[in-house]
Specification:
two-stranded antiparallel sheet, 11% strand, 113 residues, 2 domains, 6 helices, mainly alpha, Arc Repressor Mutant, subunit A
């Protein structure tokens, strides 16, 4: 999906060429078929090949994925998810990032959330 989002659209061969440790071509095609069946991708025929493109924007896909993670792993709690992210040893936030988080929290308070 990352390759398709970055390129805007891609064929199976283009995706295969951009992967650093690619599986076989048939595995790529199978995964693309699954993503089409799940309505994450759509395709059009261009000569003998399919050209795949996303069905929703990257931003919407991120929001959906994050919502599923929060629901499945954090009991639907944004607080638990944020606490896990902020408590992670891999989360080294800069002062600018912390300031931006403060601004987002302030904006949510003003909206009454």
């Amino acid at each position: 999906m990352d390759i398709v989002y970055r390129r805007g659209e891609a064929t199976a061969a283009q995706i295969l060429a951009e992967l650093s440790d690619p599986p076989g071509y048939s595995a790529i095609r199978a995964l693309l078929r699954i993503l089409v069946d799940k309505n994450h991708l759509q395709h059009r025929e261009e000569g003998p090949r399919y050209v795949y493109s996303p069905t929703v924007s990257r931003q919407k896909a991120r929001a959906r994925a994050l919502s599923q993670v929060v629901t499945n792993f954090f009991d639907g709690s944004a607080l638990k998810a944020a606490s896990a992210l902020l408590g992670s040893s891999q989360s080294k936030l800069t002062k600018a990032e912390l300031d931006e988080l403060d601004a987002l929290i302030d904006a949510a308070r003003k909206r009454g959330q």
